[in-house]
Amino acid sequence: MSHPDKALATQLTNMQTRTGKSFDELAAIVRESGLTKHGELVSMLKTTLGMGHGDATTLVQVLKQQATADTAASTPPSMDAILDGLYTGAKAALRPIHDALLVSMRSLGAFEEAPKKAYVSYRRAKQFCMIGPATNTRIEVSFNMKGVPATDRLEALPAGQMCQYKVRLTDVSQVDAELLGWIRIAYDAAG
Fold it and tell me: 70 — phi, psi (to 5°)?
C-alpha cells in the first residue's frame, strides 16, 4: 500500500471512530439522503453527523469513486466496443469486413456473440463460426461444419482443431454468396 493509500485508510478508520458509524453505515446515510451534489452531501454530513469538512469531503469523494467503479464493472462493454478493441491500429482497416459479415449473418436468425481475446465466437446451441483478425491485413473466418469438400478458398483444418474449415479475407468484396453459403451450413448445423 502506498503512502497516500495508507493515509486515506487511516482517515477512513478515524472517521468511523469519530462518528461511531461503520463505513457501510456512512455510505447508507449518503445514499439514503437522496442528495447527489458534492457540496450538498458535504454540508449534510457536517450538519447531521458533526463531521469536519475534510472528513466529509473525503467520504463523498471515496463513495463517488466507488460508485463509478461499481458501475463500470457491472456494465459489460458493447459488442461495438469489443470489435473496436479487436480492430485497432493497423487492423482497423479490417473492421468493415467483420461488419459486412455480421450484417449478412444477422439475416440467418438469432445467435450468441462470445468475444474472446483475439476473435469473436458465434454460436447457437453450439459454435458455428469464429471471426477475427489473423494479421494486420487478413481476417479469418473459421467454420464448424462437416462433410463439405475443401476448395482453394475453403481450407480444411487438421483434425482436433476447434473448427474444421477456415477462409481468409482481405477485402470486403470477398463477403460473397459462396462465403455466406458456408456460414449458412455451419449455422444450420449448430441449431
Answer: -65, -40
Place of cell 470489435: 83
Residue 34 near residue 45, CB atoms below 8 Å: no
Q: With 80 as the cut, is the pLDDT of residue 1 above it?
A: no
Positions of E strands within the chain: 112-115, 120-123, 127-133, 139-143, 155-156, 165-169
Q: Does pLDDT of 2 surpass 60?
A: no
Residues linked to residue 142 through DSSP beta bridges, in sequence order: 130, 166
Asked if 67 contacts 59 with a C-beta cutoff of 8 angstroms, the reply is: no
d(CA 33, CA 46): 13
Phi, psi torsion values for 123, nearest 5 degrees: -145, 155
Which of 135-164 are b and which e, b meaning 16 or more Cβ less than 10 Å from the residue's Cβ? eeeebbbbbbbeebeeeeebeeeeeeeebb
Give the integer Cα–Cα distance in Å for 123 and 132. 15
| Bridge partner list, 122 | 113, 129
pTM listed for this prediction: 0.61
- Cβ 127 vs Cβ 121: under 8 Å: yes
Per-residue pLDDT reduced to its tens digit, 138-156: 999 999 999 899 999 999 9
